[in-house]
Amino acid sequence: MDLGTKRVAGIIARVALLLSCSYGTTGEEVCDSPLVTNLLPSSFRSSSQLSSSHAPGFAKLNRRDGAGGWSPLVSDRYQWLEVDLGERTKITAVATQGRYGSSDWLTSYLLMFSDTGHNWKQYRQEDSIGSFPGNSNADSVVQHKLQQPAIARFLRLIPLDWNPNGRIGLRLETYGCPYTSDVVSLDGSSGSSGLVFRIPGPRRTSRDVVTLKFKTLRNSGTLLQAEGRDGLGLSLELERGKLLLLLRQGRTSSSEPRRLASLGSLLDDQHWHHIAVERRSFHLNLTVDKHTERVQIPAEFSHWDVEQLSVGAVQGFSSQKSLVSKRNFHGCMENLLYNGHNMIELAKNGDHQVTVLNNKGVTRLCCRREHDQIIVTNCEITRGAALNDGQWHSVELNSRRGRLTVAVDKEEGGSAQASPSFPVTIESQLFFGGCPAEDTSQECRNPFNVFQGCMRLLTLDNQNMDLIMVQQKQLGSYSNLQIDMCGIIDRCSPSRCEHGGRCSQSWTIFHCNCSDSGYSGATCHSSVYEQSCEAYKHNGNTSGHFYIDVDGSGPIRPQLVYCNMTEDNTWMMMQHNNTELTRLRPSAGVKQHLVHFDYSSQDEQLLAAISQSEHCEQEMSYHCRKSRLLNTPEGSPFSWWRGGSGLGRIQTYWGGAHPGSQQCACGLQGDCVDLQHYCNCDADRMEWTEDSGLLTHKESLPVRSLVLGDVQRPGSEAAYRVGPLRCRGDKNFWNAAFFDKETSYLHFPTFHGELSADISFLFKTTASSGVFLENLGIKDFIRIELSSSTQVLFSFDVGNGPLEVLVESSDPLNDNRWHRVRAERNVKEASLRLDDLPVATQEAPADGHFHLQLNSQLFIGGTASRQKGFRGCIRSLQLNGVTLDLEERAKITPGVQPGCPGHCSSYGSLCQNQGRCVERTNGFHCDCGLSAYTGVFCQTEVSASFKSGTSVSYTFKEPYELSRNSSALPSSIYSDMTLRGENVSLSFRTNQSPALLLYVSSYYREYLALLINKHDKLEVRYKLDSSREAEVLRSKVRILANGQLHTVTIRRLTDSVSVQIDQNAREDFNLTSDGEFNAIKSLVLGRVQESDDLDPDLARLASLGFAGCLSVVQFNTISPLKAALLHPDTSPVIISGPLVQSNCGSAASANPYAEENTHHLSDQSGSVGSGQPLVNAIRTDSALIGGVIAVVIFVIVTGLAITARFLYRRKDTYRNQEVKGVKQDDSPDFPFNNQTDSQNLSTENPKEYFI
After folding, report:
1. Most exposed: 196, 253, 565, 1103, by fewest CB within 10 Å?
2. Which pTM was predicted?
């Protein structure tokens, strides 16, 4: 058929298509007209045909012409059927049918599209599925609607599988509608072909939209430049096949642009790519093909006027002359729209707003056939030195006079040449890409793996090799090859790696490097950090620095906080740049003092942490002398602060008062120094006073800035302090529900986890099976269940068939203890983790569906069928980092109860050293009352450094306490203090020998003494009969006074005594006395003040005192050292001499007399504070430490003040901290000490945990 006949056939088909195109009632085009039915047989081509009656022209749907369809000569995967639609057309659906009256049909196939009949592109659905399901018989029609319409003139169908009892047989139809477009071809020459669109007049718009399509074979060039006032501009540029969005802030092209975004890859493939740029105030939406990225832009772009739009050529700013640049675009553009204006159409119509640069470049037809391309598949990837980057590289091999010369990328100056010293000859055959699998001769050998990638422009002796002839088997041979297309896939664009994970790929799969991202998993989806300090505590951690990720796998990054874990609460501390007491003085011309607070955490991190916490607070204090604070509630405030999200809202109340009250704490309590005012400072007195308190209204936190207004008057002095933000409690961690029936469940909206989903929760039960969670779709589903008493099963289906991940425990899971489940599913794999067991994984199919499409409600604790429901508790359920509020939903759901008590069965083992687990509604705490230890888990040693004059005396019950309301005889007064056995334990380190460690006396002149004798051995002396000499029990363990930490345990039951030192063998002794220790009176550590009842040699030893360290001293249930250090107000203790609390009893302490975290009690008996345990006071709130020290300094005689201050400085020196205080010499009568933050004064050694 000649060219004229083909054109007539194309016109007829086009007219028929236009006549058949219809429109719906809504005015929207219905694009589903048949496209193949009216085509002439000449519009069909194929790789081969079985006979003339099986020709491709007979492959029309529901037709019986010829042999009833097309069949190739050979049925293999190298066959194809091609249809020429005559013009570029919008294709929306494809239908297939087998060959009529036969057993020949396809079961799966590929679709290819092209504008030119060459350089084909494979159609892929959204899930990257390349193949389409075919038919199951010869007569039925199977139609597939394309998820994204294809725009092309040529369609090619490639059979993949067919009826095994027949051969390839096909009839087909495609559906769609006409496609019209305006196209321009730009040659990228030095003449700079392009378009310049000038926008008339000021518009002051906050929204601009630019859309276009392009295709090119060059990997670099400027597509678009938008210029505005003040040198502001945006440009879209191709660089190595990627699209870059650049920001320019300068009037010269030499100004360095800033990259805002990079999207797409391999865009230089000579296929059409869609671009859309939408500007909305402070952000841009950049779309390349199906992928969109949101980009923040500077504030000056919010009302940016675009004055000039340049297309295809690099333009100088504010200049009509094009710059000669190699960055000019070479290729085609289609349907270039700016805010609805078709720029190409305006250029063709000669509109005055559009200037055409190099008029030869504007044409409606575009982009003739380019070079044939070739791809090698089904092999293993070969990595080269920087040549496996997806870019085109030129290779030249020249053989002259027996020498071989190799050049790589010669035109770009990157040539690499070599001349081997051996002769090179060309035989009769050349092999490209690899050797034939069936070749058993020595003519072709693979020294490396075969090539995977694309080749084009193959020449031999300056003659181009026609690959179409190769495809038609008229020249050479091939296998495992796709000719006339390049199917390289950039699996890292867009990257499936989340949270900044770095993507790399092989030929078939991608990998994510999650190092330094804070996330883990195949796609860096799941956070490696806990979501709160509360969660770290229940992992057994103590106070220290931790990274927390408040939204788990969500977009908020992890933040470093200090977790202060006390016996009562777990505090999360977030610092800012000025938590110290800061002095103010009047400054000339300054009427107000403005302070901004910059936090170590970002705004979204702070707000999320506040939101999930049960309680937050921030201390605010103002110290003043003739400096007013708020004025009266009726007047304008002198000072205010901003708090809350963003820049914060103005607040006119002070710490300790209610929002909006314009009062301080004293005004609320009614105890201000002047009752006519509501703040102490508003009394405007010459004496120093203060207003301080806690801000606890979460909506007003954190404090962002502070304005102090009454600081300019002569004589005004003031100081302020805003403490760190402190939050406690985790509402999400303890959110729980109890399901008491198999038919009970909670339901929530549909779970949306199309590409990646992570689910975590804790459960406890006594049942052997039950469904934790289920969500269904039409075909897809996701489910997690307890499949047996030892197994948890995670199953789902995204369209590839059900996939299951199972974890089995060696211990029963229905033990009524909390167990943690973490499941994740992404495009690469599914994983399931149970408690601390090894994670189980299942890989996803490489080319399968990966969108999880659900539409039913999400069921928790049951299923839609109300079968296999779960009986027990579910807690802290999170889906993709979002916590479901089980308790609120349980309150309105029959059969489900909010909350779930009973945590000690799971967490009680965290309480150490005889600490007792106590249940709470939300959690537990360790009661250390019967332990010689302290701390959140009773794990911290209570130790003290003793000097020779130090004495701690613990008095057991006094006689008069026992004889109250009693007429008993004196001999019975002490009856309940008579012991037939005791358990004594302590740790010590000393260099003193001999030394008395512990002495217990009796009202009957009996005693127990524990000492180190002059031979450095331990002695236990029992005198249980006042009429007899003391019995001495000597241990064989030597060298105890060596400065090392030693632990001693003594147990007596009547006359049997056992002694154990450190890890040495236990030593057993027997007493000759009756075994009763009658009427014990007191226990003394250190120097014994009353030695009248002692034996002479023991009295001399007791008078020497003890110099060293004593730790965790326990006598039966009494901890005398702990009572002296932590509860001196409420305990019957008498302290004489210097007693220094220390960590010297820690096994990790290298310094025998370390004074870290010390607090001094000098010659005191009774109160040294408010009764709060001092260790916890130091750890919990540094302000309390400063206050206690200040009270001690001003209450004790003036002579001791200097010593106390010196010791306090020694503490800070040991801790290597610089506490910047208010300079005292500025005002000799300034009465307030600066206070450091509690996280710097924790008795726990701060640690940084990276998990």
Report:
1. 1103
2. 0.75
